[in-house]
Design goal:
With about 200 residues, this protein is an all-alpha fold. It folds into 2 domains: about 1-65, Homeodomain-like (Arc Repressor Mutant, subunit A); about 75-200, Tetracycline Repressor, domain 2, CATH 1.10.357. About 70% of the residues lie in helices and about 5% in strands. The protein is built from 10 helices and 2 strands. The protein has helices at about 15-30, 35-45, 50-55, 60-75, 80, 85-100, 115, 125-150, 155-175, 180-200, and strands spanning about 1-5, 10-15. The chain has a two-stranded antiparallel ribbon with strand order 1-2. A hairpin with a 7-residue loop joins strand 1 (about 1-5) and strand 2 (about 10-15). The longest helix has 25 residues, at about 125-150.
Length: about 200
């Protein structure tokens, strides 16, 4: 908890974690450019001075939200990829875990804060850099897991498999926003996982 000092009246305490989660949900619903300062204040319940004091400017809030969303993915979805299952099962379970994050329920899909909203604001250097970092991290995550299952596979096939796995996840957010159901995307993830395994086995 962070105490925000005010000259008059009683000092207020801010639950930074709760406020940041509110920012994550706001930014992944509306993106960076469409969010106003009034939106930021209303969704967190904080005045503009308090927002700036705790989180910095709007860009800092968005970058912080991207990082918070990434931490959520690492905590709740990545363990499925690292599990001691065969690669096909691990990938399918990881994709399903990611879709659980992307969908609030079976119908409502805010999608991915990073891959779903950052591309439209990638003309902002800090956002472009964070987006590239996210893609690079995803590729490395997939590469490490695939190599664990196929250490003797040639490099070219490994990279094809990495591309399929990473691009499947990146595509989920756009497809969810377009109206694809969670069940349909889980099936898509299962087919992609099977394709990756087939490439390595061929």
């Amino acid at each position: 908890m962070t105490e925000v000092k005010r000259k008059p009246g009683r000092p207020a305490t801010i639950d930074k974690q709760t406020a940041m989660q509110s920012l994550v949900e706001l930014f992944r619903a509306k993106g960076f450019a469409a969010v106003s300062l009034d939106d930021l204040s209303e969704t967190t319940g904080l005045s503009r001075p308090s927002l700036y004091r705790v989180f910095g400017n709007k860009l800092s809030m968005y970058i912080g939200a991207m990082d918070a969303f990434g931490a959520q993915v690492v905590e709740t979805a990545v363990p499925a990829l690292h599990a001691d299952d065969d690669l096909n099962t691990a990938l399918a379970n990881f994709f399903e875990a990611m879709l659980t994050i992307y969908f609030r329920d079976e119908e409502v899909a805010p999608g991915c804060l990073v891959f779903g909203t950052a591309p439209s604001s990638a003309d902002e250097p800090a956002i472009q850099a964070r987006l590239k970092f996210g893609i690079d991290q995803l590729d490395e995550l997939m590469r490490t897991r695939i190599l664990r299952s196929a250490p003797a596979c040639d490099a070219a096939r490994i990279e094809v498999a990495v591309s399929i796995a990473s691009n499947t996840l990146i595509a989920f957010s756009a497809r969810a926003k377009s109206g694809a159901t969670k069940a349909a995307l889980i099936e898509m993830g299962a087919r992609s996982a099977q394709a990756v395994s087939s490439i390595l086995d061929s």
